[in-house]
Specification:
Blueprint: H1 4-42, H2 51-61, H3 68-88
């Protein structure tokens, strides 16, 4: 009869193997959902918590040549595209 310690060790090893096996997939899905969620929020003015940061950053990067509304739509589209690609597992190395 195996001791309680060896049974727990077996369960721990089995759980560790499963976590290692699926950790990259879980991380990819979680990051993809975050990108898609924040990207969708940027399409609605005043809803995104990062809207002011996005407008200020794009104003500096584009030297004020691109209006804030256009920059928000560009960033929202980029974030949604990245999120969808991560969720669909496309474009991965």
């Amino acid at each position: 009869m195996r001791s309680l310690y060896t049974r727990f060790l077996h369960v721990e090893n089995h759980l560790h193997h499963r976590l290692v096996q699926h950790s990259i997939t879980a991380l990819r899905i979680a990051v993809g959902a975050v990108f898609l969620g924040f990207g969708i929020l940027k399409y609605f003015p005043g809803v995104s918590p990062a809207q002011n940061l996005t407008e200020a950053t794009t104003h500096i990067l584009f030297l004020g040549l691109v209006p804030g509304d256009v920059a928000i739509v560009m960033i929202a589209t980029l974030e949604c595209t990245i999120g969808i690609l991560l969720l669909a597992n496309r474009g991965m190395r």
